[in-house]
Amino acid sequence: MGLLMQIRPKPLAAWALAACLLPSAAAGSPSSNVAWTVETHRLVQRADSKIGAKLETIETEETYACTACHGPAGATPDRDRYPTLAGQVAAYTYKQLRDYKDGKHENRRMQAAVERLTDEQLAALSAWYASQPLPVVDVNEEDEISPATVRLIYRGDKKRLIQPCASCHGRWGQGAIIDVPAIAGQNVPYFVDTMRDYASGKRANDVYSRMRIIAAALTREEIEELAVYYARLGNKISSGGLKQANAE
Length: 248
Hints:
By secondary structure, the protein is mostly helical. The protein is 50% helix and 0% strand. The longest helix is centred in the C-terminal third of the chain and has 20 residues, at 220-239.
């Protein structure tokens, strides 16, 4: 039985819940301008994915089409530094696009791409990507994942105030309904770079500094193994192998 199936998740402990709710260590302006009001939820839930499908191919003199970097349907990023968007939680994608537009997540190319889009169009793009199946991503099958790293996923490490990854991102890395991302199926280099950016504070649009606190507590080896684990998990989901393994 592989590592994916060895450790079963346990109920979220009180210390893990407390770690999820740790206040932001940085004072000043909020990490994001997105407030999850009833109106915002409705905007994302009622978005038209067909409009998003058209938007991702639009290119102007100033900006590339979404597909130029993320690939058709967000499934095949052109380079490792671009994230896989296919199968991503719509609310999470919407928040990130708004954060780019508002300057809360700094990236010149992304800011230029979204600055003229309305909230309705951002929501439509998010709905489009959420409706796409997880792709199969490149991952080195020879890379090993230690049992200690798998324990981090399902049990966390209370000594370092690291809550289980699964407590927020789900047992299968599927993300959560509001703005917790799906991480299963993400390409390995992007996953690693993002965690390092959180750890260094280069990326700071996570609410309550949750990911900055966790990433800073992880070792480089743990981050790399987590990236491999979730890439493989996404591949199992996309191929149907995980469903079969879980049923046995």
